[in-house]
Design brief:
Two copies of one chain form a homodimer. The first copy, chain A, is elongated and about 85 Å long. Chain A is an alpha/beta fold and 354 residues long. In chain A, the strands form three sheets. In chain A, strands 2-1-3-4-5-11 form a six-stranded parallel sheet, sandwiched between helices. Chain A has a four-stranded parallel sheet with strand order 7-6-8-9, with helices on both faces. Chain A folds into three domains: 61 residues, Orthogonal Bundle (434 Repressor (Amino-terminal Domain)); 129 residues, Rossmann fold, CATH 3.40.50; 136 residues, 3-Layer(aba) Sandwich (Rossmann fold), CATH 3.40.50. In chain A, strand 3, helix 7 and strand 4 form a beta-alpha-beta unit. In chain A, helix 10 packs across helix 11. Chain A binds a DNA duplex (16 and 16 nucleotides) through helix 2 and helix 4.
Chain lengths: 354, 354
DNA sequence: CTGAAAGCGCTTACAG
DNA sequence: CTGAAAGCGCTTACAG
C-alpha cells in the first residue's frame, strides 16, 4: 500500500484545484446536496438534527476545512478587517492592536495587519491591495494620508475608522486623543513646577507628526504664557536608523545639555526616549530633576518604576483599539446611531522627575 | 442631479455583487475581452503595448481594484501567509515578525498575523480558520502544539516553518535557537563569575515553556557541575495578569531575597523582568552585583543602558524572522535544496551586573 | 497577440 | 426542512 504511482491520484478536472476536500465531497459522503452541507455549517438550526449529525460526522471524517475565499466570493462578505499601522516595533501601536483584536475577534472577525514603516506611499499601496479582499471595513492609524489613499477608501465605500489622534477632519470615523492638547497640558505642568526654559526632544519627527503636534501644543501654550521658552531638539547626531528610542534618548541628553546649558526641563517625544535619558543621567551623575527635569509621553509601566518616577502622559491605548473596533463593527452591522468621532482624552501623571 | 431615487441604482443581477468595478467593466470600457485585461495586469508582456495602454487608462479611469478572492479562487494560489505567534505585547515576537514581514513583502507576499495569547486551543482554531484561505504556507511560533494543530497542517500539506526555538522534532521546517543551551550558557557564566547559589525567576512558565527550557538547561548544567544550586522562583504573589514583565521583576526581587537570603545570582526569564528588578534594586538600595547579581535574556538595547550594565543573552530575533520567511518562500517556489532546520544560536553578553 | 468557454468552491434566490 | 440552478469575479486551458 506504500506505492505512490501517479495513478493513485484521484481523477481531476482540467483546472488546478486545491486537491483539498470540498463541500461537495462532504455532501456526497453524507448523501445530501451541497447546499444542505452549507446550511448545516452556517445556519445549523435550519437543518434537521438527523442530517446535521450525519453531515458533522462526514466533515470530521474527511477533515473538511471550508474554503473561505469561495464563501466570501459567493456571499460578497468577508470577516477579515485590515488594520494598518505605521510600525509594529512601537509598543503603543501594539497595545492599540491588542484592543482591536480582542474586540473584532469576539465578534467573529479576523484582523489582517499591515505596517507602513511611516511611509504614506506604502500605506496607499497597502490600502489598495487590502481593498482587493473586499473587507467589510478598514482600520487605519492616523489622520494624515495621501489623497490617493483617501480616494481609494471613498471609492470602496467601506466603513473606515482612523485611530490614534483625534482631529476635526476624518474620512469616516475617528477615535483618538488630541496630541496638541497633550503637549499643552505638559507645558502647563512644567510651568506650574516653575520651569521656564523648556525643551522638546523628538526623533524622526517628519514621520512622527503626532510628536510634532505635541511640540506644537507645548510651544503655543508657552507663547501664550509669555514667560516661557521652548527649544526644539530634533536633529540629533546620534539618531541612527536602527537605534531604539531608548538609545536615542540616552545619546540625546548630553548633546542637549551641551547645546543649551541653561535648559531646565525636557519633554521627550515618548517614554522610551525619556527612560534612555534618565538612565544616561544616572550613569553620568546628572541630577534629575535638579539639574534638568525630564518628562515622557505614553504612560508605559516603566515610568513608575524609575527613580525618580518619570512624569508622563498616559494614553488609553487599549481603549482606543477597543473603541475603534467597536465603532467599525457597529457600522458594519448597520448601526448608524453611534458617534462618529471620539476623543478618548489622556491623563497627566506628575512624578518626581519634574 | 442630487436625486437619489432607487431607480438611479444600476441594473443588478439577482446576486449580491459588490457593486464594485469588475474586470469585465474594464474590458468593456477598453473594448477588449476580460481575459486580455487579466493578462495586461498579471503578465503585461504578453499583451501588445497599444492594448496595454488602453487597458491601463480604463483601469485608472474606473478606479478598478482587482478582487483578490476571485483571483485566488480561480488560480488556487494566494500570496497571503499566516503568521501565528503567542503574543504581540512581547517585543521579541514583534521583532521576529518584522523580519518575516520584510522578507515576505519583498517577494510580493502579505502577512496575516494571528495571536494566540499562549493558548494552544486558540492556536488550533486559528490554524483551522487560516487554512480556509488556502495559504501557500504557514509560519508558526514554537514547536509545541496540540495534535489537532499538527494534523490540520499535515492534512493541508502546505509548507510550515516553526520558528523561535530550535529542536529535534518539527512538522516541516524549523528555525530558532536552543533555549536549553542558552540556559546552560548562562549557568556556566554565573559559575565562572564565582556564584554558586543561583536562582531562576520566571513568570507564567506553564505558558512560556521556552523560559522553562532555559531553566532546565541552567539546572542540568549546575547539577553536572556538582557544586552549584539552582532555585526556581516561579509562583510570585505579585504576578497580576495585566502586569508588565518589568513590574513583575520589580515586585519579585524583594520577595526572592526574603525567601532565599543567601541567593547570589538571579537569572530572569527575560530582560524586561531583569530591568524591573534592577530598577527596584536601585530604589531600595540593593547593590548589584554585590548583594545579588542579575542577568536577563534577549539582549534588548536597554540592557546596555542600565547602570551597572545588564548581563544578557542576545537572540538574533530579526534574523529568525528573515530566515523563517526565506525558508518558506524557497519551499513555496519549489526549492527543495535548502536546509530544513536552522539553529541560529545566541550570544552571551557579560556586563557589570554579574 | 487575443478570445470564447469552462471552472474554482462556495452561497443566493427560487422552488417544492 | 431539502434541493437544482445560477452566479460571485476571476484564471486556466484550449483555440485561433
Amino acid at each position: 500500500m506504500k506505492r505512490r504511482s501517479p495513478a493513485v491520484r484521484p481523477k481531476q478536472s482540467r483546472r488546478a484545484g486545491h486537491g483539498a476536500v470540498t463541500l461537495s465531497d462532504v455532501a456526497t459522503a453524507a448523501g445530501v446536496a451541497p447546499i444542505t452541507v452549507s446550511r448545516a455549517l452556517n445556519t445549523p438550526d435550519t437543518v434537521s438534527e438527523a442530517l446535521r449529525e450525519r453531515i458533522g460526522a462526514a466533515v470530521a471524517a474527511l477533515g473538511y476545512v471550508p474554503n473561505r475565499m469561495a464563501g466570501a466570493l459567493a456571499s460578497a462578505r468577508t470577516r477579515v478587517v485590515p488594520v494598518i499601522v505605521p510600525s509594529l516595533s512601537n509598543v503603543v501601536f501594539v497595545e492599540v492592536i491588542a484592543g482591536i483584536q480582542e474586540t473584532v475577534e469576539a465578534a467573529g472577525y479576523q484582523m489582517l495587519l499591515g505596517s507602513t514603516d511611516y511611509d504614506l506611499a506604502r500605506e496607499a499601496a497597502l490600502v489598495a491591495t487590502l481593498l482587493g479582499w473586499a473587507p467589510p471595513g478598514v482600520l487605519l492609524a492616523g489622520l494624515r494620508h495621501l489623497p490617493r489613499t483617501v480616494e481609494l477608501l471613498k471609492t470602496a465605500a467601506v466603513p473606515v475608522v482612523e485611530f490614534m489622534e483625534y482631529g476635526p477632519r476624518c474620512i469616516d470615523m475617528n477615535v483618538g486623543l488630541s496630541h496638541v492638547r497633550a503637549g499643552a497640558a505638559m507645558a502647563a505642568h512644567l510651568r506650574a513646577c516653575g520651569y521656564r526654559r523648556l525643551g522638546f526632544v523628538g526623533a524622526r519627527m517628519r514621520d512622527d507628526y503626532r510628536a510634532r503636534q505635541r511640540y506644537d501644543g507645548m510651544n503655543r501654550h508657552c507663547i501664550a504664557a509669555g514667560d516661557t521658552t521652548v527649544t526644539l531638539f530634533e536633529t540629533l547626531s546620534c539618531e541612527a536608523a536602527n537605534d531604539s528610542d531608548q538609545e536615542v534618548g540616552w545619546c540625546a541628553l548630553p548633546e542637549v545639555l551641551a547645546a543649551q546649558p541653561r535648559i531646565e526641563a525636557l519633554f521627550f517625544a515618548n517614554d522610551e526616549m525619556a527612560v534612555g535619558a534618565m538612565l544616561r543621567a544616572r550613569r553620568d551623575g546628572i541630577a534629575v530633576p535638579d539639574r534638568v527635569a525630564i518628562a515622557g509621553f505614553n504612560g508605559l509601566p516603566v515610568s513608575g518604576l524609575m527613580t525618580p518616577g518619570l512624569t508622563t502622559i498616559t494614553s488609553p491605548r487599549r481603549a482606543i483599539g477597543q473603541r475603534a473596533g467597536a465603532m467599525l463593527l457597529a457600522r458594519i452591522n448597520g448601526d448608524l446611531s453611534q458617534r462618529l468621532r471620539i476623543d478618548v482624552g489622556f491623563t497627566l501623571e506628575p512624578r518626581a522627575s519634574t
